[in-house]
Amino acid sequence: MNSESQVRSPQHNLAILFDFENLAIGFEKNPKLEFDVNRILERMVEKGKILVKVAYADWSRYSKYKQALHEAAIELIEIPRRAMTGKNSADIHLCVDAMDLCYAKEHIGTFVIVSGDSDFSPLVSKLKENGKHVIGLSMKNIASDLLVANCDEFIFYEDLDGVVVIPPRVDRRIPKGKREAFRLLFDSIAALLRENQEVLWSSMVKDTMKRKRPSFSESAYGYRTFSDLLEDAEKLGFITLRKNPRSGTYVVVGFTKDLQ
């Protein structure tokens, strides 16, 4: 059953766990790719609210990445490599923390495992067994087929910028002082359409805009309510709206097909 309350379900609370050594290996094997943690976070924020961001590694080996991760407010867990055992302690620590979050934080419904290592397949299975949605993320050259097949969804780093739904261009129809708000609105609608959301409730659109830009407020652009912003976008011919007959709230049908 589709209802506006579903947009706030636990599945839309995310924990992102980085097996950073595996990720770094992928970049070393493909020097044409540049590491940009914000690309990952911007895609994940389209899926829900990120509550946990943790990266595991022997950071003495990956110090050049630390500043970007700190700036993205990602917690760095120091796991020195044990040369004698050859075991990757970071992998073990990630698994323990994931299961602790699974059992202790019921409000977290989606786990994002940033790794291509097949060793995480049992963890993925256990998380799914406990009703969690699991997204895998890695590069194509290091992603294990077993891990890819076991996740509910798998995203390749190379495809993070792949846009299926192209938002309309912000043009002269929009007053200059409101273009920033319209650009954020269009990007958020496009993101939700890309995620195959069946019903785009107005609250869902606004929540996505707030996750993308926490400082967003429609009043800063001269709108009394968020509905006023949506109505303006429809009047200008960018989107199509309908009202839910029960609640009277707006639903975004999509972008107007005859946009030039």
Key terms:
elongated, Rossmann fold, Nucleotidyltransferase, domain 5, alpha/beta, single chain, disordered N terminus, three-stranded antiparallel β-sheet
Your description of this structure?
It is built from 9 helices and 9 strands. It has helices spanning 20-29, 37-45, 66-71, 89-104, 121-129, 145-150, 179-194, 202-212, 226-235; strands at 13-19, 49-57, 75-78, 110-114, 133-138, 153-156, 200-201, 239-243, 250-255. Strand 8 and strand 9 form a beta hairpin. The protein is of the alpha/beta class. Helix 7 crosses helix 8 (202-212). It folds into 2 domains: 4-159, 3-Layer(aba) Sandwich (Rossmann fold); 176-255, Nucleotidyltransferase, domain 5 (2-Layer Sandwich). The model is unreliable at 1-8 (pLDDT under 50). The protein is elongated, with a radius of gyration of 20 Å. 36% of the residues lie in helices and 18% in strands. The chain starts with 12 loop residues before the first strand and ends in a 5-residue tail after the last strand.
The CATH topology of the largest domain is what? Rossmann fold
Strand content: 15-25%
Rough outline: elongated
End-to-end gap: 36 Å
Number of helices: 9
Tell me the count of domains: 2
In spatial order, strands of the major sheet run 3-2-1-4-5-6
> Which ranges are low-confidence, i.e. pLDDT below 50, for 5 or more consecutive residues?
1-8
Can you tell me the CATH superfamily of the largest domain?
5'-nuclease
The biggest beta sheet reads: 6 strands, parallel
Order of helices and strands: EHHEHEHEHEHEHEHHEE
Number of strands: 9
The secondary structure category is alpha/beta
